[in-house]
Please model this.
Amino acid sequence: MELYLIRHPRPAVAPGICYGQTDLGLAESAADVAARLRPLLPADFALYASPLTRARLLAEALGTPRLEPRLKEIHFGEWEGRSYDDIGRAALDAWA
Model:
């Protein structure tokens, strides 16, 4: 068995923003990314994806995914949508 792990394309969010489970669109075309990936993948494969838009769009461009909520990124609570600079080094270090 081979397992391919594919990260979603770059999300449409400014650099330095903590986004975790914030449901963002993509900064690039999922179809274009899928076209580059297809030659690297087997002809027939099971496809699982997070239901978040940034992962789902690429998965749908590659095939018919099974959307799995457990594949979502971690939720950062009150940090969601805030810049890392605003969160502050002390809070980030305490979390890490």
About this structure: Residues 30-95 form one domain. The first strand starts at residue 48 and ends at 49. The mean pLDDT is 96. The CA atoms of residues 33 and 58 lie 7 Å apart.
